[in-house]
Structure formats: structure tokens, C-alpha cells
Amino acid sequence: MELSHRRRRRRRRRAREDRRETERERERERVGELILGARDTHKTQRFSCIEKQGELMAHSHARDFMFCDLCGTVLSMRTTKYVQCPLCKFKRSMKEVAERETSYMVTAEDIRRELGITLINDQEVQLSKVKKKCEKCDNEEAEYWTMQMRSADEGQTTFYRCTKCSHKFSEN
């Protein structure tokens, strides 16, 4: 009797794990389709992909089970029965949250793009010129810029680049 009970429990556990894996595969496929669809729509029709982005965001929001569906606030675990939004009091059953995990990877490029920051190449910046003799070629003109290299109570370091040979040198 005990042995058959264990077997049934193992079968149920395997079936549950198989269902979870199938759900994960479907989710990966759906996200891939949404991303490819948004990219292809944008390429071929050259218009804003607001509808596709909305679908992708809705899918992502549904996947982010630790956030409130109504206002997006992180849900708080105050009891063992449910998680609740501290702002709008939305509740979600603890069964929906238990044993689930979400992982994210955010790159520096993602952060720069979100904040609207672009990297500036030295060639794009217009530097001021000053009369400063180059140590390498004796040219009399150099471009300069300053940077705070040490603690704030000390002066800045001035960097020079010769306009003729591009030799770089500095002065504290």
C-alpha cells in the first residue's frame, strides 16, 4: 500500500514538472514571436510598433508575478495566504507566487538607452586650443581638456593633445 502511494506521488510530481516545463517552453516561444513580430513589422512597414510593444509589455507584466497588476508596485508578503499591494490593496494568492522565479539581465547599454545617454567619441568633441609647446615635435599649439583625477579638494588635471602629432601629455 505504502509503495503504490509513493509511486502515485512521484507520478504526480513528474506530471507537474512536465506541465511547468511545457508552460516555460510556450512562454519562451511566445516572447520570441512577439519580439520577432515587432522587429519585422517595424522593418517592413516603417511605423511605430505600439501594438506589438503593448502585447510584449502585457506578456512581460503577466510574467512579473511579484508586481501589482493594477499599479505596478512590488507586492508585500504580510501573511502566508496572499501577497498584497501596499498602495491599492490588490491581493494575489500565495499559491500563484510560491516556487516561481524571474530573472533579468540589464546591460549598461540598456541603461544608457533608457536614460537617453549617448557615448561621445573624442573626434566629436570640439576641444579648446591653447599655446602650449609639444614635448615631442615642438609644435606651439595644443588642444586641452580637464578631469578631476584625485580627491575633490585638489586641483584638476589638465590634459593636452598636440594639434600636429597628436601626442598626449598632462599637467597637474
UniProtKB/TrEMBL annotation:
SMART domains: ZnF_C2C2 (SM00440). Residues 1-29 are annotated as: Disordered. SUPFAM superfamilies: Zinc beta-ribbon (SSF57783). CDD domains: Zn-ribbon_RPA12. Residues 130-170 form the TFIIS-type domain. The keyword NAD does not apply. The keyword Zinc applies. Residues 1-14 have a biased composition (Basic residues). Gene3D superfamilies: 2.20.25.10. One of its GO terms (molecular function) is zinc ion binding. This is DNA-directed RNA polymerase I subunit RPA12. InterPro entries: Rpa12/Rpb9/Rpc10/TFS, Zn_ribbon_RPA12_C, Znf_TFIIS. Residues 15-29 have a biased composition (Basic and acidic residues). One of its GO terms (biological process) is termination of RNA polymerase I transcription.
